[in-house]
């Protein structure tokens, strides 16, 4: 455990608002979102400026005190949970929540790490722009955490992950020095791109304190449709048809298995199936225009769906009549994870495979998992257009102790799913990161060259090993 004399050093540095030691106040931040990882920490350090972050990290380096950076604590892989032995302190960025500037002329927002995603959405909307990344945790996820995990979300098909949206960055490195890279330069050939190394590093190489983020024009008109299809192969055919007819105006394209929809209808109040027919699979598609040119998105989507019916791709479909109905369609998609959690214990996998192979993977791997582990059910949902779905294997009906089931079956099921992903040429982490949940599997499945390079980079940046210990980088011999 970290001693009181050490906590006193940080208290002298940050003042009474900058150090939290009451264990009741700390308790909500010691567990991961899924409830699978539990840590301990003597204090939460809460600096209010980049300079305070730098001073905090410098002191931690001198004292060799590990730090676990934390934003909204929405990690799906235990990436922001401190070690259980209490050896680390939590470094919270939540007080650093200013939008320093927002320029519609430059299409840039400069945000501190603690800015909540939904707050950025509202600020950008107020000046006729938008930040084109959204996800279910937008009301609590912070910009620093989204950058550190290279978050994806529902608009990746058109706009890319956070890696594509970060134009500049300010960060504190493990020795307490400040990396000043907020200038959003289109061309910068000064060697290694430090910004890109920090994106997706899960806080193991430094702490993001602010970022310059790319904005895009506000949506002038949109159309949101719900389409029932027979299979993921038909869903992919629908996507290719939509892309051919509608071009890059296709903003989102999500696929949901019917059992996933059923969980939402069972557990989320006021949720309704948008179409009359319960088909084996469902597609949510959004088409956006930044101007009011004709034909509008609704007419264009209607045309694409008419052709989908002609080709036998679509079974049933509807287009939202207004924004309220469109938002209701999206709430169904965003509620799938919460509904599945309410449904019962499950093992969740955030994976990607090449898009052309995804339909077969979704069907064949689910069937194979159910055969290999009798009583389980498996299905998937997510971002078909960019080859990333969330593949879930649910415990047998009536399983009373989910944690015990995971402890007994989790390793074997995870190895089964991940082996299938690798066999399909995919990645065991598409947008949630590695954290501590997938660290050993990364060590088992990644090439020796990849692991060696990651360890070398970690050692070069953080020779004392104080930044987010035991996350992302497999331990020697692990896997």
Description:
- This protein has 479 residues and is α+β, with helices and mostly antiparallel strands.
- It has five domains: 4-92, Uridine Diphospho-n-acetylenolpyruvylglucosamine Reductase, domain 2; 99-217, Uridine Diphospho-n-acetylenolpyruvylglucosamine Reductase, domain 3; 221-336, 2-Layer Sandwich (Alpha-Beta Plaits), CATH 3.30.70.2190; 344-423, Alpha-Beta Plaits; 438-479.
- Helix content is 37%, strand content 20%.
- The protein contains 17 helices and 18 strands.
- The protein has helices at residues 4-14, 23-26, 50-63, 117-126, 143-148, 156-159, 162-165, 194-198, 232-246, 258-267, 297-310, 323-334, 336-343, 358-372, 402-423, 439-445, 448-461; strands spanning 19-20, 44-45, 67-70, 89-92, 99-103, 108-112, 129-130, 166-172, 178-181, 207-214, 216-217, 221-229, 250-257, 281-289, 314-319, 346-352, 377-383, 388-394.
- Strands 15-12-14-13-17-18-16 form a seven-stranded antiparallel β-sheet, with helices on both faces.
- A hairpin with a 4-residue loop joins strand 17 and strand 18.
- The longest helix has 22 residues, at 402-423.
- The mean pLDDT is 93.
According to CATH, what is the topology of the largest domain? Uridine Diphospho-n-acetylenolpyruvylglucosamine Reductase, domain 3
CATH top level of the largest domain?
Alpha Beta
Number of strands: 18
Counting H and I runs of at least 4 residues, what is the number of helices?
17
State the CATH architecture of the largest domain: 2-Layer Sandwich
Fraction in helix: 25-40%
Oligomer: single chain
Percentage of residues in DSSP E strands: 15-25%
The tally of structural domains comes to 5
Largest sheet: 7 strands, antiparallel
């Amino acid at each position: 455990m970290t001693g009181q004399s050490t906590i006193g050093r940080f208290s002298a540095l940050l003042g009474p608002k900058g150090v939290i030691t009451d264990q009741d106040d700390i308790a909500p931040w010691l567990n991961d979102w899924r409830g699978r990882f539990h840590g301990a920490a003597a204090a939460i350090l809460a600096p209010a400026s980049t300079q305070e972050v730098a001073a905090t990290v410098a002191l931690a380096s001198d004292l060799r005190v590990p730090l676990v950076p934390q934003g909204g604590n929405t990690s799906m892989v235990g990436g922001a949970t401190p070690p259980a032995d209490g050896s680390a302190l939590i470094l919270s960025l939540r007080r650093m929540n200013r939008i320093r500037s927002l320029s519609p002329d430059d299409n840039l927002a400069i945000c501190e790490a603690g800015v909540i995603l939904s707050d950025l959405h509202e600020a950008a909307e107020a000046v006729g722009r938008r930040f084109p990344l959204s996800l279910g945790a937008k009301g609590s996820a912070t910009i620093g955490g989204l950058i550190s995990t290279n978050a994806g979300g529902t608009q990746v098909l058109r706009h890319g992950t956070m890696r594509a949206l970060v134009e500049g960055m300010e960060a504190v490195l493990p020795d307490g020095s400040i990396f000043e890279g907020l200038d959003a330069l289109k061309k910068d050939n000064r060697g290694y791109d430090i910004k890109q190394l920090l994106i997706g590093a899960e806080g193991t190489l430094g702490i993001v304190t602010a970022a310059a983020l790319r904005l895009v024009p506000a949506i002038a008109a949109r159309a949101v449709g719900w389409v029932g299809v027979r299979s993921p192969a038909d869903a992919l055919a629908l996507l290719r048809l939509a892309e051919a007819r509608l071009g890059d105006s296709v903003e989102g394209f999500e696929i949901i298995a019917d059992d996933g929809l059923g969980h939402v209808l069972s557990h989320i109040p006021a949720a309704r199936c948008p179409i009359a027919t319960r088909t084996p699979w469902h597609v949510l598609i959004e088409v956006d225009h930044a101007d009011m040119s004709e034909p509008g998105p609704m007419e264009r989507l209607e045309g694409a769906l008419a052709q989908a019916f002609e080709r036998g791709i679509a079974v049933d479909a509807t287009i939202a009549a207004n924004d309220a109905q469109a938002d209701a369609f999206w709430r169904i998609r965003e509620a799938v994870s919460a509904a599945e959690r309410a449904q019962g214990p499950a093992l969740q996998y955030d994976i990607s495979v090449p898009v052309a192979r995804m339909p077969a993977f979704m069907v064949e791997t689910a069937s194979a998992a159910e055969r290999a582990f009798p009583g389980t059910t498996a299905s998937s949902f997510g971002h078909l257009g960019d080859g990333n779905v969330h593949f879930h294997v649910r415990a047998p009906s009536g399983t009373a102790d989910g944690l015990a089931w995971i402890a007994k079956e989790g390793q074997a099921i995870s190895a089964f799913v991940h082996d299938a992903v690798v066999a399909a040429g995919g990645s065991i982490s598409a947008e949630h990161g590695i954290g501590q949940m997938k660290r050993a599997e990364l060590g088992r499945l990644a090439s020796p060259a990849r692991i060696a390079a990651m360890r070398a980079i970690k050692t070069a940046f953080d020779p004392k090993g104080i930044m987010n210990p035991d996350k992302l980088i497999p331990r020697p011999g692990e896997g």
